[in-house]
Specification:
seven-stranded mixed β-sheet
Amino acid sequence: MLAPTPIQAKASSSSSELYLSQARASGSTEDCMALYEKWAASYDDEVGDSAQNYVAPVLVAQAAIKYGLSNGATNSVILDAGCGTGLVGVALSMAKAKAIDGIDLSPAMLSVAKRTGIYRDLTVADMNRPIDKADGTYDLVSCVGTFTLGHVGPDPALRELVRVAKNKGVVVSTILQEIWVPGGFQAEVEKLVAEGLVKVVTEELIDYVKGHGDKAVLLILEKIDRD
């Protein structure tokens, strides 16, 4: 494959900048879905280029393997929430994860994810609403790039991710730094802790989209066994 010329690279960067700005300015579920329908085909190439350098999926997969797969990747059942085109799922599969389900708002993004061949099941879902999954299903729930401007808020999403995790299961997510406090995410985590539903394993600032200088809170929650 030929390397892109400087003009091609600049065009790709400009396109991804435009889509990213539009994504973060989405005012409704419909706006968000329409944007990703257009962006899906070129998404992986654009967010992975040097101008964007979207590192969060790999960092989260590494954290999930370190903190969340006590049964080992091969024996764990995983939900990739807001899976998009499958960047996190692919990273987890490289660690030998086998049973990965994905949910996302965009059918076009799910179509790209399906072509990776690593998902057991892919379902359209709006994470601003209750998730159509049974309680206590997953050893690990990952959620990357979804808790950001113009996308999904903390309630009911964080509580739902905890609900579908098994007892002692782990939820690994990223929350864009600029909405961590003002967007209500920190308060929602404190509420879940106060209710005895989870304990915080780690809450640290990591690189997110390095090309933008964006940071995100890497949040890892362990569901408390209440049986």
